[in-house]
């Protein structure tokens, strides 16, 4: 497991993004679940989250929020209802839910709603990062080839350095997962650890 080094004056400011790690995307009965691949990355995500907070780096949880049968949202035509407001499906999955409750008052922890694949679309994420002089993003969560991928592309286009911990991302599509890891490295210049 790759861990953070002690922060020095010349090191970058970093943020760990834990993308869409909710019951609907990870739990066995989730509406769009990754199932076992998503569940297997829980301990890696929690280890990274602890490391980031201990080093006074940022942990950010961009989390899908949808309305049931929203006629104006493109995902309504593509997927069954998921991550609906005030639903079990939108709650953080298992161990991450407990971790979040324990740490939710930490100034370096930020949970926010998103309504597109990319955590940058229609959100204040870029402003949040720039104000804190964060220039390196570690992307974790699900799905490797959908929301993690679209967030990575936007981050690349906004000149953020990218790190993808391979044991902290997952997808329901093994081929899509492998393709996305290659794309992160070969087209976005991400460091795969």
UniProtKB/TrEMBL annotation:
One of its GO terms (molecular function) is hydrolase activity. It comes from the Bacteria. This is Isochorismatase. The keyword Hydrolase applies. Belongs to the isochorismatase family. Residues 15-188 form the Isochorismatase-like domain. InterPro entries: Isochorismatase-like_dom (IPR000868), Isochorismatase-like_hydrls (IPR050272), Isochorismatase-like_sf (IPR036380). Gene3D superfamilies: Isochorismatase-like.
């Amino acid at each position: 497991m790759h861990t953070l080094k002690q922060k020095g004056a010349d090191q970058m400011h970093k943020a760990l993004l834990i993308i869409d790690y909710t019951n609907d995307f990870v739990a066995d009965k989730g509406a769009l679940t990754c199932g076992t691949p998503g569940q297997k990355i829980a301990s890696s995500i929690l280890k990274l989250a602890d490391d980031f907070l201990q080093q006074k780096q940022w942990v950010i949880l961009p989390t899908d929020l949808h309305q049931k049968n929203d006629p104006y949202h493109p995902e309504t035509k593509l997927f069954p209802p998921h991550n609906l407001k005030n639903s079990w499906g939108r709650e953080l999955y298992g161990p991450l839910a407990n971790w979040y409750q324990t740490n939710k008052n930490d100034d370096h922890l930020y949970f926010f709603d998103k309504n597109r694949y990319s955590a940058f679309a229609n959100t204040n994420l870029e402003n949040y990062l720039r104000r804190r002089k964060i220039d390196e993003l570690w992307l974790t969560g699900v799905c490797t080839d959908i929301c993690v991928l679209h967030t990575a592309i936007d981050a690349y286009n906004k000149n953020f350095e990218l790190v993808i911990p391979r044991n902290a991302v997952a997808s329901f599509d093994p081929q899509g997962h492998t393709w996305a890891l290659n794309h992160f490295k070969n087209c976005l210049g991400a460091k795969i650890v």
